[in-house]
Amino acid sequence: MRSNSIFATIKHQPGAVWAVGFAAVVSFMGIGLVDPILPSIADKLHATQTQSELLFTTYLAMTGAAMFFTSWVSSRIGTKRTLIIGLSVVVLFSIGCAFSPSVWTVIGFRAGWGVGNALFISTALAAMVSAAVGGSASAIILYEAALGIGMAIGPLVGGTLGTISWRVPFSGTAVLMAVGVLGIAVMLRHGHSPHPAPVRLSAPFKALTDRGMGTISVAAFFYNMAFFTTLAFPPFALDRLGVNDPIEIGLVFFGWGGMLAISAVTIAPRLTQVLRRTTVVMSAEVMLALFLVGCALLSSSAAGLIVCVILAGLPLGLLNTVLTECSMEASTLPRPVASSTYSGCRFLGGAVAPPFCTFLAHATTVWAPFLYGALMILISAGIIAARRGALARADGDDTVDAPQVCAGTGLPAAALA
Predict the structure, then answer these.
(1) The dihedral sign for the CA sequence 169, 174, 179, 180
(2) 225 membership: H or E segment, kind and range
(3) Of 292, 324, 144, whose CA–CA distance to 227 is shortest?
(4) What is the CB neighbour count within 10 angstroms for residue 193?
(5) Which residue, 99, 102, 129, 97, is CA-closest to 114?
(6) Which of 138, 161, 235, 299, CA to CA, is 20 to 30 A from 366?
(7) In terms of Cα–Cα distance, which of 141, 172, 139, 147 is closest to 257?
(8) Distance CA 9, CA 158 (A)
(9) Model confidence over 266-284: pLDDT tens digits?
(10) Band of residue 410 on the pLDDT scale cut at 50, 70, 90
(11) Quick one: pLDDT band at residue 322, thresholds 50, 70, 90?
(12) Global confidence as pTM
């Protein structure tokens, strides 16, 4: 599919795709929402930096673990119900965060938030791909655009509302999520019923034995360690340099997320028209490693660190889109199973980085976490390079559809397409 055809298709997507996309923006806002208020939470709740980073880790760990079961759930209660239940859980637990008396209570509510987020995010990707017209490419671009926009707006909203109180951003998220629930309830007209051939509970785990899916999932695990190094640790590195105002930090990550969204939506589809997906992935991963090394070298300069963090959004946007495309095209698995497996590994990798980065900084020096992130992304690039043959299908025609039979899942692909 030509890139201009992809963009033409995006404009004519049905309302259901846009409704899920809007809810996805709000959902991804919740990831970066706490970023600019981490120093405030640490101060007001008398928490250590590592404890504050657990707001990321518990959220991401529960999101990643629960994602392995989302295809099993959605195939039994229906896509629409799964999306609505997931968003409703987020509403309840974000309200819980807003009224928490201690950092450990916030951490606990963030874990519950992660479960709701898993039900929504993994199912949303499969729902958008299934409901989209013109193939999966345009739906994946919209999904990753939602991620980028959410990542950009989340820190800005968190920083702005955080000037009032660290509790207000959580309340604001609950309101926006409630709007998302209403949008999906009204505009998503299909996907109410359980599927006649439900996904087996073991299907997402068996999917890891598939050469293509196993390769891309492990690569995404290491990639997300680097991703959340650039998102979770810089607020503390900047705090040491006197940049600790929530709005200032929010603006930094607004720029970061803006670069991510632009790259994911406009640059990635054009590059994949002239280069193989694996070539784009490896090139972007090397570029990200260079930016992370730049963060380490400029860790004593607030301006230099800010510039490197913002520019890191460019390769991150490429990687988000192209890795997701690879996950959908690299195997013979149904979309919901592929989404559950890939998303689960992706978020579990992200759960490792935040507390490890602060621990590493305290044990060594402030620039060490950035070198750790660079090492993780180079490991991901090495996996792609060594296993490139397993990703031959992902490097093929963008319009390749899922095959009719999916071995090892107990489920025909056509049933969930």
Answers:
(1) positive
(2) helix 211-232
(3) 292
(4) 12
(5) 97
(6) 161
(7) 147
(8) 33
(9) 898 889 889 999 999 999 9
(10) very low
(11) very high
(12) 0.79
